[in-house]
């Protein structure tokens, strides 16, 4: 099993290998909070189980909170070399003086362990090996011999760590070895293992692991409680995963009224209106999800959104709250009718429009003769209607 960078750093951290402070975040809100705690500048790094993130635009520096959120929002929907981004790591940005590469892996042919290292780190080791083959050192740790500080120091010297780094490099090599053994890893790679600090202040310089890749031996999972702590968060909710694939902002809330709107503020108010109506009607009906379709609100986006929301078996009714802007409510109305027909939908949909061509859009829906589609002029009215219809379908009549 391959680990995400943030999980790999956790294991390095446990061995006392220096890594810059970092917090894992999965949405704008978490990123803002994380960045404020880490401080500025910070690095926003895509969490995917694949290398070359830097070149793919998945590693960016931010100098303040707004920049951190903006850069995270450009990275979170990304797919890098076929891998969907599962979140971002917000890490302290360090001043890099030099980049090394070090890895320990299983060598199946010689039945021992390979240490691969070079003073030309930063890029992928395959590239370094091609361009500067003489700089890449391959050393072995014998499976039966003890790899101790003396052996680690010898190794650090032969790798060519600059003199002042040798002692710390040896410590890190030893700790990498412990990380490798303790966790039954097949690979522990640090790239870059960077010399960081102020170029004019010798005492500030030190080695730090800025990126890490760790693979664990699946055959040893039983010895580690099945590695439950490393379960992939991206597959936890299938609805959220599907929405992410379509670039939609969706949060699963597990109530009965599906909510679709454009603009985060409008969708939040819609959620409050549904919860309020559920309380007032004494049914305790709640929103099933948050879904912000953003600015476009085209027919195609509406169809995708409706499909995702309606596929949730807990959803009994849908509340669509759209503010017509560049896309007029007439287009949105036609999108809703098309999608509803395409999906063979039987669940009630309550629509409220405001803005560009709102009245006309509502008229189209009202006269479409589709018994599942209801319209309302106000947000409160629409929310109340949607809550009422959901309660009826769920058999939760009011308890007064
Ligand atoms: P990868 O491309 O997937 O291997 O991602 P890395 O985490 O290795 O980041 C790629 C490159 O971004 C590194 O080699 C660094 O040059 C740069 N980088 C990463 N973290 C920092 C940092 O804290 N400060 C600076 N200045 N650059 C960084
Ligand atoms: Mn790297």
From TrEMBL:
Catalysis performed (reactions): succinate + ATP + CoA = succinyl-CoA + ADP + phosphate; GTP + succinate + CoA = succinyl-CoA + GDP + phosphate
Pathways per UniProt: Carbohydrate metabolism; tricarboxylic acid cycle; succinate from succinyl-CoA (ligase route): step 1/1
One GO MF term attached to the UniProt entry: succinate-CoA ligase (ADP-forming) activity
Domain ATP-grasp per the UniProt entry, residue ranges: 9-216
PROSITE patterns named in the record: ATP_GRASP, SUCCINYL_COA_LIG_3
One biological process term in Gene Ontology: tricarboxylic acid cycle
Keywords for this protein: ATP-binding, Ligase, Magnesium, Metal-binding, Nucleotide-binding, Tricarboxylic acid cycle
EC assignment: 6.2.1.5
Residues the record lists as binding ATP: 45, 94, 99
Chain positions recorded as Mg(2+) binding sites: 191, 211
One GO cellular component term: cytosol
UniProt key word Secreted: no
Cofactor note: Binds 1 Mg(2+) ion per subunit.
SUPFAM superfamilies: Glutathione synthetase ATP-binding domain-like (SSF56059), Succinyl-CoA synthetase domains (SSF52210)
Residues given in the record as substrate binding sites: 262, 325-327
Keyword Magnesium among UniProt keywords: yes
Cofactor section: Mg(2+)
HAMAP family: Succ_CoA_beta
Purpose: Succinyl-CoA synthetase functions in the citric acid cycle (TCA), coupling the hydrolysis of succinyl-CoA to the synthesis of either ATP or GTP and thus represents the only step of substrate-level phosphorylation in the TCA. The beta subunit provides nucleotide specificity of the enzyme and binds the substrate succinate, while the binding sites for coenzyme A and phosphate are found in the alpha subunit.
Quaternary data: Heterotetramer of two alpha and two beta subunits.
Family: Belongs to the succinate/malate CoA ligase beta subunit family.
Stated name of the protein: Succinate--CoA ligase [ADP-forming] subunit beta
């Amino acid at each position: 099993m391959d680990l995400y960078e943030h999980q790999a750093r956790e294991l390095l951290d446990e061995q006392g290998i220096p890594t810059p402070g970092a917090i894992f975040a999965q949405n704008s809100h978490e990123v803002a909070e994380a960045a404020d705690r880490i401080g500025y500048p910070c690095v926003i790094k895509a969490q995917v189980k694949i290398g070359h993130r830097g070149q793919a635009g998945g590693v960016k520096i931010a100098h303040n909170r707004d920049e951190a959120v903006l850069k995270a929002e450009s990275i979170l929907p990304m797919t890098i070399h076929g891998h969907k981004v599962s979140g971002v790591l917000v890490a302290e940005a360090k001043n890099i003086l030099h980049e090394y590469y070090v890895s320990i892996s299983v060598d199946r042919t010689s039945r021992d362990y390979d240490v691969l290292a070079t003073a030309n780190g930063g890029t992928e080791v395959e590239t370094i090996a091609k361009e500067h083959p003489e700089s890449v050192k391959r050393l072995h740790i014998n499976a039966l011999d003890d790899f101790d500080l003396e052996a680690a120091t010898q190794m650090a010297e032969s790798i060519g760590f600059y003199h002042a780094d040798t002692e710390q490099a040896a410590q890190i090599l030893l700790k990498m070895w412990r990380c490798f053994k303790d966790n039954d890893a097949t690979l522990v790679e640090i790239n870059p293992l960077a010399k960081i600090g102020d170029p004019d202040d010798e005492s500030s310089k030190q080695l730090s692991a800025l990126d890490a890749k760790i693979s664990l031996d699946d055959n040893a999972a039983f010895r580690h409680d099945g590695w439950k702590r490393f379960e992939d968060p991206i597959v936890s909710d299938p609805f959220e995963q599907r929405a992410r694939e379509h670039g939609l902002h969706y949060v699963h809330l597990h109530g009965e009224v599906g909510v679709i709107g454009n603009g985060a503020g409008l969708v939040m108010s819609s959620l409050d209106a549904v919860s309020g109506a559920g309380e007032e009607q004494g049914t305790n009906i709640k929103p099933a999800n948050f879904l912000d379709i953003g600015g476009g609100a085209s027919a195609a986006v509406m169809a995708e959104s409706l499909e995702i929301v309606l596929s949730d078996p807990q959803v009994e009714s849908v509340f669509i709250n759209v503010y017509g802007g560049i896309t007029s409510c007439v287009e949105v109305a036609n999108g809703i009718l098309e999608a509803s027909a395409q999906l063979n939908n039987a669940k009630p949909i309550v629509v409220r429009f405001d803005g560009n061509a709102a009245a006309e859009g509502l008229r189209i829906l009202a006269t479409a003769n589709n018994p599942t589609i209801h319209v309302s002029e106000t947000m409160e009215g629409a929310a109340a209607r949607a809550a009422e219809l959901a309660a009826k379908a769920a058999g939760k009549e009011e308890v007064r």
